[in-house]
Amino acid sequence: MKLMLRNTAQGLSAYVPKKDLEEPVVSKEKEGLWGGTITLANGWVLALPEMAADTRLPITVEARKVGGGE
Hints:
InterPro entries: NifT (IPR009727), NifT/FixU_barrel-like_dom_sf (IPR024044). By secondary structure, the protein is mainly β. The chain has strands at residues 2-8, 11-16, 21-28, 37-40, 45-47, 59-62, 64-67.
């Protein structure tokens, strides 16, 4: 699924355009963002692609849902 990641005043945020869903990122599997999973406030767990550590935000990536609700 397409996922837009951006920094907000409250921290990292993820937006899923197809679902018109925006949720804060509550945890990351890895210290860096790329190549691991993130957990959104609604419980979704998403796998992010491998990218360079200095990749700038905001960015739209192809993420894979690996757990969580609906």
